[in-house]
Amino acid sequence: MQRRENLLYVGIDLHKETHTAVMVNCWNEKLEVVVIENKPSEFKKLAEKVNRKSNYLGLEPIYGLENAYGYGRSLAVWLIENGYIVKDINPALAYDQRKSAPMLRKNDEHDAYCVATVLIN
Length: 121
Fold this sequence. Notes:
The chain is built from 4 helices and 5 strands, in the order E-E-E-H-E-H-E-H-H. By secondary structure, it is of the alpha/beta class. Strands 3-2-1-4-5 form a 5-stranded mixed beta sheet.
């Protein structure tokens, strides 16, 4: 079984045009934000940035995609085919995470952060 502190959590907020990824450690600290276009040529760029950060920190990346059956299906398939761990995050759980904050913020970066924290928990 993998220990939480050995993973780099990558929460991804999926959209038609772009995807926003936030890298978080097991202590819910936001480490980096990456925005890519929703096209296969950009998926490798995301993986390279995540791999650079995970190698630097000595962590294994795990990806959480909010509702991967929609706009993120092609990204999810690409990640799985390339050997990455991918988890589908229920949008209701990410929504609850957003609502639990004292100040409700609605932007792609915060949504991706919420996906990452759901992935951790």
